[in-house]
Specification:
Number of helices of chain A: 6
Largest interface: A-B, 34 and 27 residues
Helix content of chain B: 55-70%
Shape of chain A: globular
CATH topology of chain A: Rossmann fold
Strand order of the largest sheet of chain A: 6-7-8-3-9
Number of helices of chain B: 13
Order of helices and strands of chain A: EEEHEEHEHHHEHEE
Oligomer: heterodimer
Chain lengths: 210, 390
């Protein structure tokens, strides 16, 4: 089954094309890499797939749903329900605890707050002890795990990661990627990693080069 | 983790700024609440004390001073009038009742009033314990005086000259308390009542050749008297006639200027608080624009982000209003307790002034409007653009 279908996608800023993907399909459960240098449109592609940006032209279907034609409210609901996002900046809500960051993700997705699921995800990422810690006091490595936990806590069908390894050393890069692949597999999600980091290209059989 | 709890967490993350914003607002609300309480209770008290007396006849001088001293018992009298002249007024067919007052002394700040039993009828007072005075040097005390001084039937009290406690004492002429009045909610609660003869007796060493009293409290027999009697007294006698209703209204007008000035000061204070709230929210919004972008990636709708910002501002507003009302009422109550010990006008913080509902609605309405601008900024933020900039 195809999870992601892109046809004739083009996105322009001020008349300048910053992203162009003629055609690309990703099967459900597959892990794929979007590779390209800075400014090649990787983040824009993820934003379009997640419904955070509307492309200038083209079609993006996720699980059969045409994302580009959804009304703004429906796009927000689609993103909350179907997509997990790991941002390059790992941004967490710093004024609350790790557990509350995950509860917030559940709440905004319209799900019931499920502390059992949160404990399960945190344990799976080896950070169960951090559940009560304030998010602003975490190390970069801990914040990365929490960001992954937040992205998978609602069992998304599509997990998008923007430059998850580019700021990490080799050991941490390998560890972070394994965590992403494991977590995507654990919740049956299709994983899309956008990066300019050539160290991880061989870990993915399917690649889109921009 | 609801958005409201997140709004509280944001507020808690800036405790000093949040507390200062709420405190500034609270000071404005407290000032206006206090003024509303004091003005409302003073007006209600003045009106209640003045409504039972149509006209006061006393010595010439300031009419306001005459009313303050004989109706509200808050000033020294303008002087005395002859008993014969007073009786002539009393005999006028337009007069339904005339209550004599002989003033001069006080007991621990509460005025000792020489009068007769018609004074009780004027204020709807009844004797709760004991009986009314019938012989010289017997006294009936108001409920507030009895409570404050711990007086019971049979107790002795000694007057001091004037209204202040420091006046020369009449230690050789003690009064015996023979009765205690039931509370009336009027000036009678704060008085010591005795016969006119008792007051004369205490002052017999300085008594004038002809007997005198301080004033007559008149009730008209007909409405026509209001037009004729004061003019007749003022024009044809050595006495003056003053209307309590008119003088009370004049007093409220005079006090109103000061109250209005303070009210404007409080409004300026609240406007500053609203601006400060606006600045704080705008600055907070700038600081956490990535948080808002993140919440959008998690599925939050633009309206939810606006609600989050609004919730933060409204929480501060509600806290400021509640704190302000508590402060205003607390200050009124504390002042009331102090005034009660001083034997002065009662004031309570355990009541609502009619204008307070409008005050709360105005502050919340204006404050929420102030929060709308940052809320709209949050609503219109573009998460993709923000995340791309980082």
């Amino acid at each position: 089954m195809t999870m992601l279908e892109i046809r004739g996608l083009r996105h322009a800023y001020d008349g300048r094309t910053v992203l162009s993907v003629p055609s690309w399909d990703v099967a459900a459960g597959e892990a794929s890499l979007v590779l390209g240098p800075s400014g090649s449109g990787k983040s824009t592609l993820l934003n379009v797939i997640a419904g955070l940006a509307t492309p200038t032209e083209g079609s993006v279907r996720v699980g059969g749903e045409e994302v580009t034609r959804l009304a703004p409210a429906a796009r927000d609901a689609f993103r909350a329900r179907r997509v997990g996002l790991v941002l390059q900046t790992l941004h967490l809500v710093g004024v609350v605890s790790v557990r509350d960051n995950l509860r917030l993700a559940q709440r905004l997705a319209g799900c019931r707050v499920d502390d059992g699921r949160i404990d399960e995800v945190l344990a799976g990422l080896g950070i169960a002890a951090l559940a009560g810690a304030r998010a602003s006091r975490l190390s970069v490595g801990e914040a990365q795990r929490v960001a992954i936990a937040r992205a998978v806590v609602n069992r998304p069908s599509l997990l998008l990661a923007d430059e998850p390894t580019s700021a990490l050393d080799d050991a941490n890069c390998a560890r972070a990627l394994s965590l992403l692949l494991d977590q995507a597999a654990a919740c049956g999600a299709t994983l899309l990693v956008a990066t300019h980091d050539n160290r991880i290209r061989d870990r993915f059989a399917r690649r889109l080069e921009l | 983790m609801s958005l409201f709890r997140l709004a509280l967490a944001y507020l808690a993350s800036r405790p000093l700024l949040s507390a200062l914003n709420a405190a500034m607002l609270a000071l404005g609300v407290a000032t206006i609440a206090f003024l509303l309480l004091a003005a409302d209770q003073a007006e209600e008290r003045l009106t209640r004390d003045a409504k039972s007396v149509d006209l006061v006849v006393g010595a010439k001088g300031s009419p306001l001073q005459l009313i303050l001293s004989t109706v509200f018992h808050a000033d020294v009298p303008t002087g005395n009038i002859g008993l014969e002249e007073a009786r002539a007024v009393q005999a006028n067919p337009m007069v339904a009742s005339a209550t004599p007052l002989a003033l001069g002394d006080s007991f621990h700040g509460s005025r000792i009033v020489g009068t007769d039993e018609s004074f009780l009828a004027l204020h709807g007072a009844t004797v709760a314990q004991g009986r009314l005075f019938s012989a010289e040097m017997e006294a009936v005390v108001g409920a507030e005086v009895a409570r404050r001084e711990g007086l019971v039937v049979g107790a002795k009290l000694t007057g001091a000259h004037g209204l202040a406690e420091a006046g020369p004492a009449h230690g050789e002429h003690p009064y015996t308390v023979v009765g205690i009045l039931a509370p009336t909610g009027t000036v009678a609660d704060r008085l010591v009542l005795t016969s006119v003869e008792s007051v004369w007796h205490v002052h017999e060493a300085h008594a004038p050749a002809r007997p005198e009293i301080t004033a007559l409290l008149i009730r008209y027999r007909t409405p026509l008297a209001a037009a004729m009697l004061p003019r007749a007294i003022n024009a044809t006698t050595a006495m003056q006639a003053a209307s309590p209703a008119y003088e009370a209204a004049r007093l409220l007008d005079l006090a109103g200027v000061g109250v209005e000035t303070l009210r404007w000061f409080a409004i300026v204070l609240m406007a500053s608080a609203a601006l400060s709230l606006f600045a704080a929210l705008s600055s907070a919004l700038q600081e956490r624009r990535y948080d808002l972008a993140l919440l959008r990636t998690l599925g939050a709708r633009p309206a939810s982000l606006a609600a989050l910002t609004l919730a933060e501002g409204v929480t501060l507003l509600v806290a400021g209003v509640i704190l302000g009302l508590a402060l205003g009422h607390g200050a009124a109550h504390a002042l009331g307790i102090w005034l009660s010990h001083a034997g002065s006008w009662p004031l309570t913080g355990l009541a609502w002034a009619p204008g307070e509902g409008l005050l709360v609605a105005s502050v919340l309405g204006a404050g929420a409007f102030t929060c709308l601008v940052p809320a709209l900024q949050a609503y219109s933020s573009d998460p993709a653009a923000l995340l791309a900039k980082r």
